[in-house]
Model the fold of this input.
Amino acid sequence: MTGIRRTVAAAALLLALPLSVVVVAPALAASPAPAAASAWSNAPAGPSVDVHVELPHPTGQYAVGREILHLVDHDRPDPWVPSAGPRQLMVSMYYPAKAGTGGPAPYMTPEAARLMLDGKLPGNTIPTRAVTGTGTWAKSDARPQHGRFPLVLLSPGFTMPRTELTSLAEDLASRGYVVALVDHTYENTGTTFPDGQTLTCAICDSFPPGGPEAVDASRAKDMSFVIDQLTARSHPAWRYARMVDADRIGMAGHSMGGSAAVPAVATDDRIQAGVNLDGTMDYKVPATGLNGKPFMLIGHPLGDGQEDPSWTDAWSRLDGWKRWLTVAGSNHGTFTDNPLFFEKLGLPEPPGTTITAARGVELTRKYVAAFFDLHLKGIDRPILDGPTAENPEISFHP
Done:
């Protein structure tokens, strides 16, 4: 996040950022700052004892399957490391599955987990298995349900592995969506490829020319390529591609992933709706809007009545159905899995955080699913109409 969100929250967040941040919060600074590492050097390295984190149970009617895809865009060189050749992406596909089929789906690879923990906590003593042993609900190689389902693309925050949005991905799949959870190579602590190589971040120490807007635009291209691969008429990249309803596609993301939803929705006619989870909108909504496409903003309170100018500017430009929700007591990481780890590991959250990790996951799942139910399935969801007694943390703007 950048702008006023950085100004208000940076000091606190640098002491309690999501576990999947290497050096600096996603877009917390105009360019990532070495100061983040020094701030973390004063934070406790964490316990050396084993802990076990279990993700909240998905809330939908379906069991959840997961498959990992390795996609190669031979028409596009990697934007950050051109010498690496064509752009390569790792994508976790979550889908409605037959109950009782498939085997355990690990949270993330040991090397990616080690790089995440060591990069986040200098002098780290947290065992890698504290992350790799996370209990998930998806099953590898589970048999798919019959039918065609809307596709939701998910993009994590800058420097964050895709796994930070696992709870959201599992829940959406359980509710009847196919979900493509994308790692943006060279933009996070580590992405493991099928050959066993784990590629680390190439742009975390300083943004490339064009700044965060260039990263947002690149992510939009990543997402369009993923759609191409999943909806190709001949030889799609995924063996269950028949499950994807190409006429119903949406995108959501956290932090920079949320910001990237703007160029993705604006430039790809196939993406019909977008959600930004607490990301400053470095890539501006075009003056002409988003062609009437629905867009939702969900964020944490900035305090003292402040508003992120990028959100205020975007709000005035959004020309379709729109909502701006604020979650009382939340922080930047609330909309991810990361607070679940913070609670178990005894790591601090930013001052002013009152919402529990489980409640943060619950609200994120509930409102993101309601948005896509409305705009991709045509199902009315009254919780999007205004404040409700059962969800008192949610306020609507304006």
Observations:
- The first strand starts at residue 63 and ends at 77.
- The radius of gyration is 19 Å.
